[in-house]
Amino acid sequence: MTGESTQRASDAAQAAAEELAMVVRRLIRRLGSAPTGGLTPAQRSVLLRLEKDGASSTTFLAIAEGVRSQSMTATLKSLDALGLIERRPDPGDGRRQIITLSAQGRDRVARDRRERRSWLAEEMDRRFGPEQLATINEALSLLGELADQRPPGPARPVAADPGSGPSDASVRAVTAPSSGGEPSPPAHERLSP
């Protein structure tokens, strides 16, 4: 609902929206704290960002994850030692490296996602009965319809920052602010599909 709207949400819809936002945040944190097979949250977040956004540089990853370049360098060094990323020189700037997921990194992200989904399904089976699960699935279907609606206003494009990033055209900037002017949250704080 926009601030300029003449129609006000019902009290029930307002309460549901507030509760949903809180529950989603808590669930994201809970999924983020699920076992990661020995990866730190920062390592997992970088892998997810590389999977989602593609090739990047240390600088872009640091900005996108909200950390200093030195911290990102250490995270990338550990991921490289595990064989989860690949580095190659930026053809336009030999001082810079382009970072991508390795085949092993892609496999690790996929496995981690499967394990988290499995954990969530097991927790839901343990805590809820068949009727409750049916209610959850019905609510998710309704929320899916809401999520599939196109929001009013123009879509927010993600554009590279000319002159400050890798010259490789396949590398996209991941630092475009959201509609609220804030950078997107680290990947470990986003609910992965």
TrEMBL record:
Alphabetized InterPro entries for the sequence: HTH-type_Bedaq_tolerance, HTH_MarR-typ, WH-like_DNA-bd_sf, WH_DNA-bd_sf
Classification of source organism: Bacteria, Bacillati, Actinomycetota, Actinomycetes, Streptosporangiales
Ranges where the HTH marR-type domain occurs: 13-148
Annotated region (Disordered), positions in chain: 143-193
Stored PROSITE patterns: HTH_MARR_2 (PS50995)
One example GO MF annotation: DNA-binding transcription factor activity
Protein name: Winged helix-turn-helix transcriptional regulator
Pfam families: MarR_2
Organism field: Actinomadura montaniterrae
SMART domains referenced in this protein's UniProt entry, alphabetically: HTH_MARR
